[in-house]
TrEMBL record:
Selenoprotein methionine sulfoxide reductase A helical domain: residues covered: 163-204
Domain of life: Eukaryota
GO molecular function terms noted in the UniProt entry: peptide-methionine (S)-S-oxide reductase activity
InterPro entries cross-referenced by the UniProt entry: Met_Sox_Rdtase_MsrA_dom, Met_Sox_Rdtase_MsrA_sf, MsrA_helical
Organism: Parthenolecanium corni
Keyword terms: Oxidoreductase
Official protein name in the record: peptide-methionine (S)-S-oxide reductase
Signal peptide (residue range): none
Length: 217
């Protein structure tokens, strides 16, 4: 029997949007997080219309996450956010630290965790702002680490930028192929993702190669 590749997950989701110094690494980190359904990277927070990578204006590299609130809480997403970048580092606007809230509950939780982090780390550069227009980054930025493996992308029927943005499977594998998640987690879920043993074995080699290594953008 041919497995059904799990690109589409049709369940109610909520959105979260973060900026944490770059967007390739967050795409891997959140993509491999159980409860996250889809991710896409792009540009947020500015006023310049239609930003592009070489001309961002006053926008910041960001990630937008669609998550299942029954499987993972916004508090957990915030915990991952704070642990995976340096909110004290002063960077240019393209790489600064931001939390974009989508409702008042997210705003309060973000503010509460900000206060906790401030006690631990001192002065933070992080700003907490309302989510506004999110401009998708160019196709080659979407699931960037996964796209470095063309054979794998072809094997799981990913061809266009929209494929990489909408696919749950793409989000998961983009994390695994860069050492996020772990082997136990992958082995427990790869059949649910619909991938065959050849694909799974290829992904396992990459988990072993990158597991425990620091992420770079």
């Amino acid at each position: 029997m041919v497995n059904q590749l799990l690109h589409d997950v049709d369940i109610p989701t909520k959105e979260a949007t973060f900026a944490m110094a770059c967007f390739w690494s967050p795409d891997c980190i959140f993509g491999a997080t159980p409860g996250v359904i889809r991710t896409r990277v792009g540009y947020s927070g500015g006023t310049d219309p239609n930003p592009v990578y070489r001309k961002l204006g006053d926008h910041t590299e960001s990630i937008r996450i669609e998550y299942d609130p029954k499987a993972i809480s916004y508090e957990k997403l915030l915990d991952i956010y704070w642990k995976n970048h340096d909110p004290t580092s002063k960077m240019k606007k393209q790489y600064t630290s931001l939390i974009f809230y989508h409702d008042e509950e997210q705003k309060k939780l973000a503010e509460d965790t900000f206060k906790n982090q401030e006690k631990l780390l001192g002065s933070l550069v992080t700003e907490i702002l309302p989510a506004t227009t999110f401009y998708d980054a160019e196709d080659y930025h979407q699931k960037y680490r996964l796209q470095q493996h063309p054979w794998l992308c072809k094997a799981i029927n990913l061809h266009s930028g929209n494929d990489f943005k909408r696919s749950h499977l793409a989000a998961r594998l983009n994390g695994y192929v860069y050492g996020q998640g772990d082997m136990k987690q992958f082995n427990e879920e790869f059949e649910k993702l619909g991938i065959d043993e050849n694909v799974a074995d290829f992904v396992r080699t990459l988990i072993i190669k990158y597991e425990g290594q620091g992420l770079t953008c």
